[in-house]
Every structure is written in structure tokens, then in C-alpha cells.
Specification:
By secondary structure, the protein is an alpha/beta fold. The chain is about 35% helix and about 15% strand.
């Protein structure tokens, strides 16, 4: 029995905790000599007469991951070759010349895609401050799609998702939530009536900085069919090895998020008391903290080169702690403070993480 077929646990898992579902969803049936994990199926061609036929249309290894993620988010998942491939496929839903509302501070890849599409006359974009709910609701009036992040990347702003999603639907627009930062363990946007949830699987879901992959989740069967058709046509499909690694990472998502969140909460508290730090941004959940250095961008750059444990790198959500000054990227919005450093807090011992940061921060004010 394949991982995308129901097994004896399916009905029971729906009522169990998220950690239990993360461990058990998307496994082969419990039958004698069946493997516990869905194997890697490196096939480009399948015997005719079934649903797959060809490697661009489906794969048992993807299906296992999609079953697991769909169960965690409460919908049906589609895996993509990258997070940006997932973003591009969703934006392809927007009609020619129609309007997309999006946060002014959001994932840089999303902003770049929107800017490119707008420059080519493909769509119109209105960037908004997602913390100003009234302004966002007003912007929804003539929108075809409302793109949301909460928390935003890297400003860590929080949006009123239920109110904005309701306004998007009233205007006849799709409501899409990038749930990469929160993960389905901390936030399930489909329960607030979002049409689509997008993930960079590269980040927390896979969790080990060794996978490039994306995903979209929906409860709408028609949207699912449209997006799968687009994925099949453009070929934005993941590799089977990547899907296998992503599913293996997903098995420990609840443990990693719990530890990273505990570490982040404590580090945010300690960072707020250090004289080198002018501002701490932490929404109260998740494993991402942002700090604004009191001495400016040069101090922020120096910080990212003074540590031993913390790794200066882009991306986030791995078991190891990484950080970077986001404005080092020329495409990062000017609304992001020049001295903002985004910290992706890992699962190391928190006292070791703090000591590494403290010594580097002390040098800045020394």
C-alpha cells in the first residue's frame, strides 16, 4: 500500500496531537515486511494505466511528504522544487493586469517576483503595512489576490489574519498565507479560511539546511487541481531524494520548533538588556528573533563576523543557529532598518548561544 493511500491509522491520527501526526503521517501501511519509511522511488517513467504515468505527474516519495504536510496544515499539499517555485505557481493564478496586495516587508524572493511581474505589465502590486489592518482591508477592495506573512520576514510583524482574509474574500480575492516562519505547529491559516498556504520547505519543515523545496496547501479541490496542472506543465517538481529528506526532517518538526522557540524566547530577553542592542523584535513565538544594533549597520556587519557558534548565512530554520544583516542584500526593502540582524535560533544549548553572542556584542561597545 502506498503512502498516499489511507491506512489503518488515518482516521485516528486526525484526532491526535501535531507531534504524533508529524511522526506517523505519510508512512506505508503496517504490514509484515513493509518498510517503516516510504522509500526513495527514483523513477521517471511508470507502467501505463494508473494515475502517475510519468515522473512529472507524481511520485510515491513526494506523495508521502504531501500526505504528512497536508495532514499537519489541514488540507491537501503539493510539493515543488523550491519555495519560489511554489510562490510563482500561486502568482500565476492572477489574471493579466489584476492587483496583488502584499506586505511591504516580506520574503525578499516574493517581493522580487512581484516587482518583476509588475515591470512586465503582468500584474499590479500594492505593498502595505500588514500591522495597519484598516489600511490592508481598504487595499483589498479591488484585489485579485492578497498575499500575507505573519510574522513577516524579516521585520517580524503580525497581521490580523482572520480580519484580512475575510476582507479579501468579500472583495472576491484569493487569500494566501506564507506560513514558513510559524509552521503548522504554531499557526494553521486554513482554519482562518485562507485559500492557500505556502511554505519554503527548505526552512523549518526540512530543518537541516540540506534541502531545497517548497509546498502549497489548500482545502479547495478546484484550486488543488489548477495548481497541480500548472506544476505538471512547467515541471516545478522536487527530486525524490529531496522529498525523502524533507519528510525525514518533518518527523522531528515538533521537537525542533519547541527547542528553537524556548531558546529564542530566552535570547530575546537577554538581548533586550544588552547596551549594544537598540531594539529587539520577537513576536512571542517561533524561533526567529530580529535585533537592531544601536551603533548602526557597521556594527551589525561586525557582529556577524565575530562569533564562533553563530554562522553568518542566509536562509533559516535549521538545527544550527544562523544570522545575517538583511540590508546587505540590495533588493531588501528600504523599510527594513539598515542595522537589523535576523537571527534564526537553532537547537543548541541556549547558554552557549548566548555566551557566543554576548562576547561579540561586548566587543562592539567595549
Amino acid at each position: 500500500m502506498t503512502a498516499d493511500a489511507p491506512d489503518h491509522l488515518t482516521d485516528h491520527l486526525a484526532a491526535m496531537g501535531a507531534g504524533t501526526r508529524a511522526v506517523h503521517l505519510g508512512r506505508p501501511a503496517h504490514e509484515p515486511d513493509q518498510p517503516l519509511n516510504e522509500p526513495i522511488t527514483p523513477a521517471s517513467t511508470f507502467v501505463a494505466g494508473g494515475d502517475r504515468e510519468y515522473g512529472r505527474y507524481g511520485n510515491p516519495t513526494w506523495a508521502a511528504f504531501e500526505t504528512a504536510l497536508g495532514g499537519l496544515e489541514g488540507g491537501r499539499a503539493l510539493a515543488f522544487s523550491s519555495g519560489l517555485a511554489a510562490v510563482a505557481t500561486v502568482l500565476d493564478l492572477v489574471g493579466h493586469g489584476a492587483k496583488v496586495v502584499a506586505p511591504r516587508n516580506c520574503y525578499n524572493g516574493t517581493i522580487l517576483q512581484l516587482a518583476d511581474l509588475e515591470a512586465r505589465g503582468r500584474l499590479r502590486t500594492e505593498l502595505v503595512d500588514v500591522t495597519d489592518t484598516d489600511a490592508v482591508v481598504k487595499a483589498c477592495d479591488d484585489a485579485a489576490l492578497v498575499w500575507l506573512e505573519s510574522p513577516t520576514n524579516p521585520a517580524l510583524e503580525i497581521a490580523d489574519l482572520p480580519t484580512i482574509i475575510a476582507a479579501a474574500h468579500e472583495a472576491g480575492a484569493y487569500a494566501v498565507v506564507d506560513n514558513t516562519f510559524a509552521t503548522p505547529l504554531l499557526q494553521r491559516p486554513l482554519e482562518s479560511d485562507a485559500d492557500l498556504v505556502v511554505h519554503s520547505v527548505t526552512k523549518y519543515l526540512a530543518g537541516h539546511s540540506d534541502v531545497l523545496m517548497g509546498a502549497v496547501v489548500t482545502r479547495d479541490d478546484e484550486l488543488f487541481s489548477v495548481l497541480k496542472g500548472r506544476r505538471d506543465l512547467i515541471g516545478a517538481v522536487p527530486g525524490t531524494f529531496e522529498a525523502y529528506l524533507a519528510l525525514r526532517g518533518l518527523r522531528t518538526l515538533h521537537l525542533r520548533v519547541e527547542r528553537a522557540q524556548a531558546n529564542a524566547t530566552e535570547l530575546a530577553r537577554r538581548l533586550a538588556e544588552h547596551p549594544a542592542v537598540g531594539e529587539v523584535r520577537y513576536p512571542g513565538f517561533g524561533g526567529i528573533v530580529a535585533i537592531v544594533l544601536a551603533q548602526g549597520a557597521m556594527a551589525a556587519d561586525l557582529l556577524t563576523h565575530k562569533t564562533r557558534l553563530w554562522v553568518h548565512a542566509t536562509s533559516l530554520g535549521g538545527v544550527e543557529s544562523t544570522f545575517e544583516r538583511r540590508r546587505r542584500w540590495k533588493s531588501e526593502p528600504a523599510t527594513i532598518p539598515d542595522a537589523l540582524v535576523r537571527l534564526s535560533v537553532g537547537v543548541e544549548d541556549v547558554d552557549d548561544l548566548w555566551e557566543d553572542l554576548r562576547v561579540a556584542l561586548d566587543d562592539l561597545v567595549g
